Amino acid sequence: MENGAVQQLQLLGKRVKGFGVGGRYVAHPYYSGRFRELLGCTPFPGTLNFDANLDWRELASMCEPQVIPGTVWDGVRLGAVYVWKAKIMTRHGYVDCAVIRPLLSGHPPTVLEIVACEKLEPILENNPDKTVIVTIACKRGDALRWRRY
Fold first, then answer.
1. Of the listed ranges 24-28, 56-60, 121-125, the one predicted with least confidence
2. How far apart are CA 98 and CA 2, in angstroms?
3. Is 118 annotated as a binding residue?
């Protein structure tokens, strides 16, 4: 692989319920500006959570993330977030998104979150098993790897 070449990592996971707080963080000025730069839009104030059956640390070792560093904002600690530019399969084709892992997350290490320009739930395939297909753009790693739930 050429130095700096973009490779793809495809994850196949299952949607899971979140804690209901993702929207508050995505809409926070500290994070929303970073997501706006990455996605080219104001992100929908919420996340779609999925169990990738892959520990986020393993993902980070295969595909180097961008990092939004932690900070203190008006006396409140905001944790660092790992971010991967990606696309999610919807009934309309692939949609640009960001796969994220907040480092202060209370989710199991295999649960990742997706941030996008629009609410994803209505445009995902109506499949009873709640499958999610995400393709992450990597700057290093193998050409294509599959992780199945």
1. 121-125
2. 24
3. yes
Q: Is the pTM of this model over 0.90?
A: no
- For the four alpha carbons of 33, 34, 35 and 41, in that order, the dihedral sign comes to positive
Q: For residue 123, what pLDDT band results from cuts at 50, 70 and 90?
A: confident
* Residues 96-111: b if buried by 16+ CB within 10 A, e if exposed: ebbbbbbeebebeebb
Residue 131 assigned as binding residue: no
Rounded Cα distance between 42 and 8, Å, is: 25
Residue 127 labeled ligand binder? no
All structural domains of the chain: 7-142 (2.40.30.30)
Cα–Cα dist 31/19, whole Å: 18
Per the rule left: phi > 0, alpha: psi between -120 and 50, beta: everything else, 77 is: beta
